[in-house]
């Protein structure tokens, strides 16, 4: 199965066990090497993550994440 930005976000949040912004998630994923699992990384990975997570939250049957704060935008697992 292809490793996606949503998988990366979930893996970081499970490891950190705290609310995080997408910038924090991206930085932590680089420290842990999770970014290497992605097939490709564009010039603005945080923007790509933002688009992916917002689409997921609004359309998925089983939503994996919840936005816990708007400013700054923080996310956590929806377990």
Q: Structural class, judged by helices and strands? A: mainly alpha
On the 0 to 100 scale, the average pLDDT is: 96
Portion in beta strands = 5-15%
Count every helix, treating DSSP H or I runs of 4 or more residues as helices: 3
Alpha carbon gyration radius? 12 Å
- The gross shape turns out to be globular
| H/E element order | HHHEE
Could you explain how this protein is built, in words?
This protein is mainly α and 79 residues long. The protein contains 3 helices and 2 strands; from the N terminus they run αααββ. It has helices at residues 5-16, 22-32, 45-59; strands spanning 65-69, 74-77. A hairpin with a 4-residue loop joins β1 (65-69) and β2. The longest helix is centred in the middle third of the chain and has 15 residues, at 45-59. The mean pLDDT is 96.
Write a concise synopsis of the structure shown.
The protein has three helices and two strands. The chain is mainly alpha-helical and 79 residues long. The chain has a two-stranded antiparallel sheet with strand order 1-2.
Itemize the secondary structure elements and their pairings.
Layout: H1 5-16, H2 22-32, H3 45-59, E1 65-69, E2 74-77
Antiparallel strand pairs: 1-2
Keywords:
48% helix; two-stranded antiparallel sheet; 3 helices; mainly alpha; 79 residues
